[in-house]
């Protein structure tokens, strides 16, 4: 995967304030407010910051958590997983492997009937959807 490196100023010029807060500062959009939370359009979800492919609609499922949920990335090396000990919790942060933007978190063992028993809980503002032709 091609690495994308930009200065903080370049990211600020490219992204809206909300996109910057989530993608570059690790923020979170409010639950049930994102444009892709309930979307069922078939296609590919790319990183909003750099355009790298991250997820496919075939792995998206309704988890009713308030954010788009996927049970696997399109390729394991398209995302980077990092231990996150913020806010008094231990979680696994999901980042774009290409530009290191914050996407959300991945959770395991929650009992969803998915092939991986994982829930990639991703901020809509971190994604763009490229609908299938």
UniProtKB/TrEMBL annotation:
The keyword Metal-binding applies. PROSITE patterns: MSRB. Transmembrane segments: none annotated. It catalyses: L-methionyl-[protein] + [thioredoxin]-disulfide + H2O = L-methionyl-(R)-S-oxide-[protein] + [thioredoxin]-dithiol. Residues 8-132 form the MsrB domain. Its EC number is 1.8.4.12. Pfam families: SelR. Gene3D superfamilies: Peptide methionine sulfoxide reductase (2.170.150.20). It comes from the Bacteria. GO terms for cellular component: cytoplasm. One of its GO terms (biological process) is protein repair. GO terms for molecular function: metal ion binding; peptide-methionine (R)-S-oxide reductase activity. Keywords: Metal-binding, Oxidoreductase, Zinc. This is peptide-methionine (R)-S-oxide reductase. It comes from Calidifontibacter indicus.
């Amino acid at each position: 995967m091609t690495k994308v490196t930009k200065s903080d100023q370049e990211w600020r010029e490219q992204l809206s304030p909300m996109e910057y807060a989530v993608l570059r500062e690790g923020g979170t959009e409010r639950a049930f407010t994102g444009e892709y939370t309930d979307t069922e359009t078939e296609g590919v979800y790319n990183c909003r910051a750099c355009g790298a492919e991250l997820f496919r609609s075939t792995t998206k499922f309704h988890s009713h958590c308030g954010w788009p949920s996927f049970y696997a990335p399109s390729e394991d090396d398209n995302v980077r997983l990092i231990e996150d000990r913020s806010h008094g919790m231990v979680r696994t942060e999901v980042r774009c492997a290409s530009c290191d933007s914050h996407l959300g978190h991945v959770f395991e063992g929650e009992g969803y009937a998915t092939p991986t028993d994982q829930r990639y809980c991703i901020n809509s503002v971190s994604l763009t959807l490229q609908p299938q032709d």
